[in-house]
Design brief:
alpha+beta, Methane Monooxygenase Hydroxylase, Chain G, domain 1, seven-stranded mixed beta sheet, binds adenosine-5'-triphosphate, binds magnesium ion, PolyA_RNA-bd, RNA-binding
Length: 462
């Protein structure tokens, strides 16, 4: 293997420059980790990590632009043109505290020693400037056979760093690989140590599983391994590391829901069938579906995702889709005619916003595609979604700010004392404009307010 075929040529040229500068400075330097593995698997390479015998201060000295990203652990980011490369000094790790990060690192001179600290054989291959591979653990043959195998003794490696168990499941799911027997056994024996790992790091692996090409396989592996329920967040939102150490097992109310993740209660399989077909971006589409498949009600969705440290935007969007789905279900069931349905839809679109309604529409289109049902059922579903998509396009205003009249103007026109009626009236005006029943024109709206007030001395619009 001499050429890289999966790397952007500009990135490759600069990466090779970094290797050259290090080599010319009298050091060893290699590409390592994910980039070498992905190239061997014919998968696109997104970044190129570099390992070198040069000590961090030497790396800083050799390049014009560097950032001391994690200099105490040996990592310096080197900037070349518009590319950034993480350059890490060969190191050995030891004194793992609490099955997490290494307590101390020691710089070493041999690349093979550096490869030895890495998690799986497929991630422990180095590649030099001339394309030569340094593959002391036969990672290449494991890649060819689709196997995930720890470097060294699996029990020990999971004992050192429990996140590696999640990473094993993640790679199995995203690559369609099989964990070797010894790894799986070590994982079953060591799974309770996952509770020592920060929720955020576990969540990031879960995201790669759920947003990856085969989320169902990953979820099934999480279920079979029992890993999920040993995650800190699944043991209750208040569970601190100290409590986990003390063996705090009793799950809180939210945790009980979290534990349903494919473990305690069978999910709604029909919904899950759509999971792999949904676009992974934005992620809220897949998460909202997963939550519903687990039977999580809309009001629980946002706190649940937040306790798993999801970014606010994802938590809000996913919860919004679930709540929209529930609200639409209720409207749909209670509004038999198309006119009422249209008004109901528009009311929800105004309440939840255009974005959420749009995300729900896109998601439901995929759910319908994946669902098994007879032709008549499918056609009815499609007709419904087509109508809703039309209504979605028709709505032009979503907030009171977009209305051509202000609260003050309405108050003046109504010649009444302010009160709760005002905000109710404004919402009704907004809905009438959104539904195209009134034009968004200042005078028309004020005239409408005046007639309404005159007619019944109150706030009615219709
Ligand atoms: P991805 O495609 O997700 O970036 P990756 O293998 O590059 O996969 P990174 O988290 O970027 O994963 O880590 C880079 C490399 O560092 C890995 O290939 C592996 O060699 C090593 N590594 C990462 N995490 C661990 C860990 N927890 N234990 C041991 N080695 C690790
Ligand atoms: Mg990487």
């Amino acid at each position: 293997m001499n050429r890289w075929s999966q790397v952007d040529p500009l990135m490759l040229a600069q990466g090779e420059n970094v290797l050259r500068v290090l080599r010319d400075g009298g050091h060893q330097a290699f590409f390592v980790g994910g980039c070498v593995r992905d190239e061997l698997m014919d998968r696109p390479v997104h970044d190129m990590d570099i390992a070198t015998s040069a000590r961090p201060d030497e790396v800083v000295r050799l390049f014009d632009r560097t950032v001391p990203t994690g200099i105490q652990h040996g990592t310096v980011t080197v900037l070349m043109e518009d590319q950034a490369f993480e350059v890490t000094t060969f190191r050995r790790e030891s004194d793992y505290a609490d099955h997490r990060r290494p307590g101390s690192v020691e710089f070493v001179d041999a690349v093979t020693e550096d490869l030895q600290r890495r998690d799986f054989t497929m991630n422990a291959i180095a590649r030099g400037l001339d394309g030569e591979l340094i593959d002391p653990f036969d990672g290449r043959s494991d890649i060819e056979r689709g196997l995930i195998r720890c470097v060294g003794v699996a029990e020990e490696r999971f004992e050192e760093d429990a996140l590696r168990m999640m990473r094993a499941v993640r790679f199995a799911s995203t690559f369609g690989f099989r964990p070797v027997k010894s790894l799986w056994k070590a994982l079953l024996d060591g799974r309770d140590k996952l509770s020592c790992i920060a929720t955020e790091r576990v969540r990031m692996e879960m995201e790669k599983i759920v947003l990856g090409p085969d989320p169902l396989r990953g979820l099934a592996l999480l279920e079979r391994s029992g890993l999920f329920r040993h995650a800190k967040a699944a043991q209750g939102p208040a569970a601190t590391e100290a409590e986990a150490d003390a063996g705090g097992e009793a799950p809180g109310a939210e945790a009980a829901l979290a534990q349903r993740l494919l473990h305690r209660e069978p999910p709604r399989r029909a919904l899950l069938a759509a999971l792999p077909l949904l676009e992974p971006a934005p992620p809220a589409q897949r998460w909202s579906l997963l939550l519903q498949a687990l039977g999580a009600p809309g009001e629980a969705a946002s706190p649940l995702l937040k306790s798993w440290t999801f970014p606010n935007q994802t938590a809000q969007e996913a919860a919004g889709i679930v709540r929209f789905d529930e609200a639409w279900e209720a409207v749909h069931a209670g509004a038999p005619g198309e006119r009422e349905q249209r008004r109901g839809w528009i009311g929800l679109q105004v309440a939840f916003g255009r974005e959420t309604a749009g995300l729900w529409l896109r998601r439901q289109q995929t759910v319908l595609q994946a669902a098994s049902g007879d032709d008549a059922w499918r056609q009815a579903g499609q007709a419904m979604l087509t109508r809703a998509a039309q209504w979605h396009r028709e709505v032009q205003v979503h907030t009171l700010k977009e209305l051509a009249v202000s609260g003050g103007e309405v108050l003046q026109a109504a010649e009444r004392k302010g009160g709760p009626w005002l905000s109710e009236l404004l919402r009704e005006l907004l809905l009438a404009v959104a539904a195209g029943e009134l034009p968004n024109d200042r005078q028309t709206l004020l005239d409408h307010v005046k007639t309404g007030v005159k007619e019944d001395g109150s706030k009615s619009v219709d």
